[in-house]
Every structure is written in structure tokens, then in C-alpha cells.
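stage 2 :: seqdesign
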């Protein structure tokens, strides 16, 4: 298992180059083969399993998600499961239940800092062209401002709207963290942007973003997983960019936990 866990790390000292692709920005359908490491996270409530968040495959027994997706009053790991290998919501693929959750030890100490979780599955995933482990960024790597990054997920297609029945992706751009922090400092909500976060969007324009139900899902830079979707004010807001947990702040902890 240790050898397998080390497979999902790309040891880089700088940054990777993002290449152009045929992805269509603004929330267009995407085949699961494009993102075989993304999985749906379902929650059990009122006698049914419903869409909740998303996650990213680390190994056959571990996925990476947002801590707030695996927390709360009365939470129990048995109330979560994942569905891998399908672009259709609640249809097809492979369903595996959650065994144990490791929320980052700093989660809950400062707003949503440390909003990242390593989740152990009850049984192993079976790799295929539609189920593959993610490649995650090295500890301490920095992504420059104004670089194209991709969100993917099954979340709401607009603020307050329905979630998507199929996997969607959209391209946004990284935003200077100090500028992003200043914007959030001026908001009426108690959000704090820290050095362990990445902000992205179309600043002062809006129109592209992750939304409710996408939490825990990926932010990709090229083919590298650099963030897990965490929070924002509204969806596709022109003033307040979306914010993700920066994986590079937690890579060493992720590797130590998912073995």
C-alpha cells in the first residue's frame, strides 16, 4: 500500500505548464474518461442517498475531499459513500462505502482553513479507464496568478439552481491571494483567506465557478490536482472568487495518512 500511495505524487519543484484542451468553459458536459480520478460523494439522510459533494481518488482505498463534507452534528462515516467511474449522477460506475475519515487536524480552528480530508473506503476500487488515481502536486508548490485552472463536478448549474445530472467542467483563472483576501475581508461574512488556499474565477466578470454540491471536488492545473473545492460567496460571483484548499499545503500529510 505504501508503494501505491507514493504513485499519486508528482514531485516537482516549480510549476507545471497548463496546456490548451477541448474543454468548454461555463459548465459543459465532460466525459468521465477526461477526469477518471473524480468520484461522487453521496450522503444518507431521511432514508435515501443523495448527492452531497465530490472527491478525488488517491489510491484504491483512499480518496481526498473537503473536511466540511465529512463533518457536522451527528456525522458518522456510515452516512457517506462514493460512486466512481461514471459521468452520470447516481447511475452506473462502482459504489463503495466509507470506512473512516481523517479530517485535517487544523480544520475548525480558523474558519475553513484546513478544509481537506483523507477518506478510507471499506473496500478497494478497481482501476479501469474510468477509475484512476489522481496525480497531486508536491508539497510547497506555488501556482502563479492568472493561470488557467479547471473545476469539475456535479454541483448546481447556477446559484440556487438544480444540480447537474452529468459531470460538468469549466475553466477559470487563479487570482492573487492578497487581492482575494482583501475582497473577502470586505464581505459581510466571516470568511478568511489563508496561505493554504487558492482563489480562482473571472474577477470582476463572474459567470464561471464551482457551486453547491461541488465541494471536495478537484481544481486541476494541467493534469495535476492542485486544490479541493471549499467555499465561496454565491456561485460565479464577480466580486468574490471561489476558494479551494491548496493541496500543496497538505501533500506530506496526505501521503502519511493515505498509506
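stage 2 :: out
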Amino acid at each position: 500500500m505504501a508503494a501505491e500511495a507514493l504513485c499519486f505524487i508528482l514531485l516537482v519543484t516549480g510549476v507545471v505548464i497548463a496546456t490548451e484542451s477541448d474543454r468548454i468553459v461555463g459548465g459543459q458536459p465532460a466525459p468521465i474518461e477526461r477526469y477518471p480520478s473524480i468520484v461522487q460523494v453521496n450522503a444518507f439522510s431521511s432514508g435515501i442517498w443523495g448527492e452531497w459533494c465530490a472527491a478525488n481518488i488517491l489510491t484504491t482505498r483512499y480518496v481526498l475531499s473537503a473536511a466540511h463534507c465529512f463533518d457536522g452534528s451527528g456525522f458518522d462515516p456510515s452516512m457517506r459513500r462514493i460512486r466512481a467511474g461514471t459521468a452520470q449522477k447516481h447511475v452506473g460506475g462502482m459504489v463503495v462505502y466509507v470506512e473512516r475519515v481523517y479530517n485535517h487536524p487544523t480544520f475548525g480552528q480558523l474558519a475553513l482553513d484546513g478544509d481537506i480530508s483523507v477518506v478510507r473506503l471499506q473496500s478497494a476500487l478497481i482501476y479501469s479507464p474510468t477509475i484512476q488515481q489522481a496525480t497531486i502536486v508536491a508539497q510547497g508548490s506555488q501556482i502563479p496568478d492568472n493561470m488557467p485552472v479547471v473545476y469539475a463536478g456535479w454541483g448546481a448549474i447556477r446559484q440556487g439552481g438544480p444540480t447537474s445530472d452529468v459531470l460538468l467542467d469549466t475553466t477559470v483563472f487563479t487570482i492573487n491571494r492578497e487581492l482575494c483576501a482583501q475582497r473577502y475581508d470586505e464581505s459581510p461574512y466571516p470568511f478568511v483567506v489563508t496561505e493554504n488556499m487558492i482563489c480562482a474565477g473571472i474577477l470582476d466578470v463572474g459567470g464561471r465557478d464551482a457551486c453547491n454540491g461541488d465541494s471536495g471536488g478537484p481544481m486541476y492545473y494541467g493534469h495535476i490536482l492542485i486544490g479541493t473545492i471549499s467555499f465561496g460567496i454565491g456561485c460565479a460571483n464577480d466580486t468574490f472568487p471561489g476558494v479551494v484548499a491548496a493541496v500543496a499545503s497538505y501533500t506530506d500529510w496526505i501521503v502519511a495518512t493515505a498509506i
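stage 3 :: structure notes
- The mean pLDDT is 90.
- The longest helix spans residues 177-185.
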